[in-house]
Specification:
The protein has helices at 13-24, 70-78, 109-119, 124-146, 158-163, 168-175, 179-186, 201-214, 223-236, 279-287, 294-302, 341-346, 385-389, 392-411, 429-436, 479-501; strands at residues 2-3, 6-9, 29-32, 44-47, 50-53, 86-88, 93-96, 102-105, 217-219, 240-242, 247-253, 256-262, 267-269, 273-275, 308-316, 329-332, 356-359, 374-382, 421-427, 467-469. With 502 residues, the chain is α/β, with parallel strands linked by helices. The strands form five sheets. It has a seven-stranded mixed sheet. Strands 10-3-2-14-20 form a five-stranded parallel sheet, covered by helices on one side. It has a four-stranded mixed sheet with strand order 1-13-12-11, with helices on one face. The longest helix has 23 residues, at 124-146.
Length: 502
């Protein structure tokens, strides 16, 4: 029987940073991963001569060495920042439709204002006022929450108290009348998986502010390079990783963790466990609901699972410019509706008029794909349940019918892409469910509606002593929040250990 100071289940973003931060403090840490490589969503796969990026579109919160963001500071504290090369993405995003509308925004506030004011001159005053509010709100959030002001109040942070819980769509409607402009400013809802009338304005304001001020980035070598680098740092601190070996059971005595049973049947003792697995699986399968307080189970079951995704990975035998792709991040839309009706679209199998995002990393990093080629990651959001109900004998037909429709949608904006396709692979919500182990393939964890926003999230703590969560299930989805969640879990464990030794 083995014993470790801490065991981390799952080598996704949160699991990697949690295990590395704990090992960095001199703890004896075991990292269990059921796959043969680290990363979870932060990984890649190969087809032909292409290595396809799985999930990273725009890394937020990094900032520059001169103006570091919170993620850069966390990665620096892990000792990995010097081993990574980041590529600053030159554009914020473009929005395009088949009618010929095309607007490209840069991660620069003044350029954004100029571009929007030129395209929508009748909304100039409203545009200026809206971004003024975005910045005021972001500064209130930073003061109250990032710097943890002990004297936060409505008088001191009026924008925070006024707008934190307002739906983003309500705020947008208060400022603008032009439906196309509203849509252009709302497309980042796809990064959260919640339509603008269900999403708190806090999210829209902060995502715009972060990408404008700290700039969007990609990782040289893709997100797999990020995962490998963090894992190597973990190993350099004496950590132990077991691939192709997950946890089949978390052992408890009363309300306290005792260790785990691995998939290979080994019993490993530990007083501290970080689960990079969903609470649904952790409580329901690894521990057993009968050992969890009813209040906690009710709370978990009351929350909705986020959407999954239908994703197409395409390798082209040409450069991006040859097929008309000039920006890294491109939102493709055929209607301006960003409200709850998008959830209806996400709940159907077929692809028709959904919002899509096409990411082409080669625009900002010409070395991302082999010389003379480029690749695109094309995504639209889809809930997993309709795919789970699909009879197995129909799965392939529906999968490729949806892929063909997605390709037609993209071709309506980039007419020459089909003749340059060299490799293509398709992932459905069932692909995400199988690979990630997330219920229904939920890529963002729980749905982040206003009632479930960052102000009300249960976080990393659990009713089981010694058990902590990391990853998208503890708070927000996306790379920055999940990477930082592991750091938070590690700090909580280190604090508990320090208190025991006093």
């Amino acid at each position: 029987m083995n014993k470790y100071d801490a065991i981390v289940i799952g080598a996704g973003n949160g699991g990697l940073t949690a295990s590395t931060a704990l090992a960095q403090k001199g703890l004896n840490v075991l990292l269990l991963e059921r796959h043969n490589i680290p990363g979870g969503c932060a990984t890649s796969f190969c087809r032909g001569r292409f290595e396809f990026e799985i999930a990273l579109h725009q890394l937020s919160g990094l900032g520059t060495p001169e103006m570091p963001g919170p993620l850069r500071m966390d990665l620096d504290s892990l000792g990995v920042i010097q081993d990574l090369e980041f590529v600053e993405i030159s554009d914020l995003y473009s929005v395009q439709n088949p009618d010929g509308f095309h607007i490209a925004l840069k991660p620069d506030k003044e350029q954004i204002l100029d571009e929007l004011n030129n395209a929508f001159p009748h909304e100039k005053e409203a545009i200026d006022a809206f971004f003024d509010l975005v910045y005021k709100y972001a500064n209130d959030m930073i003061g109250a929450f990032i710097f943890r002001d002990p004297e936060a109040s409505r008088e001191k942070y009026p924008n925070l108290y006024t707008y934190a819980f307002k739906p983003a769509q309500s705020v947008i409607d208060d400022f603008f009348t032009d439906p196309l402009l509203k849509a252009v400013l709302s497309v980042y809802w796809g990064y959260l998986g919640v339509s603008t009338d269900q999403m708190a304005f806090a999210y829209l304001a902060m995502i715009l502010f972060q990408y404008i001020e700290f700039k969007p980035f990609h990782v040289k070598g893709g997100s797999q390079a990020l995962s490998n680098t963090i894992l190597n740092k973990f190993l350099s601190h004496g950590g132990t990783v077991r691939f192709n070996c997950g946890a089949s059971r978390i052992l408890t005595e009363g309300d306290t963790v005792q260790g785990v049973v691995t998939h290979q049947g080994d019993v490993v003792e530990s007083d501290y466990i970080v689960s990079n697995v969903s609470p649904i699986v952790t409580y329901g399968q690894l521990i057993g609901e009968e050992q969890i307080p009813e209040k906690t189970i009710t709370e978990v079951k009351s929350r909705q699972l986020s959407t999954s995704a239908f994703t197409m990975f395409v390798g082209f035998d040409c450069e991006p410019d040859d097929i008309g792709i000039h920006e890294s991040t491109n939102f493709l839309m055929v209607n301006t509706d960003m409200t709850i009706r998008n959830h209806d679209r996400m709940r159907r199998l077929e692809i028709d008029d959904e919002l899509m995002v096409l990411s082409c990393y080669d625009v900002s990093d010409p070395e991302f794909s082999p010389v003379g080629t480029c690749q695109a990651n094309i995504v639209t959001l889809k809930y997993g349940e309709p795919w789970l109900r699909l009879p197995p004998q129909q799965y392939q037909d529906v999968k490729y019918r949806c892929a063909e429709k997605m390709l037609q949608r993209v071709q309506a904006i980039y007419p020459d892409i089909r003749t340059h396709i060299e490799e293509i692979e398709v992932g459905t919500p069932l692909t995400h469910m199988r690979y990630l182990g997330h219920p229904l393939g939920a890529i963002y964890g729980f749905e982040q509606q206003t009632k479930d926003s960052l102000f009300f999230q249960p976080g990393r703590y659990t009713p089981i002593k010694g058990l902590y969560f990391a990853g998208c299930w503890t708070g927000d989805g996306g790379f920055e929040p999940t990477l930082r969640s592991g750091m938070s879990a590690a700090r909580s464990i280190a604090k508990q250990i320090d208190n025991k030794t006093i």
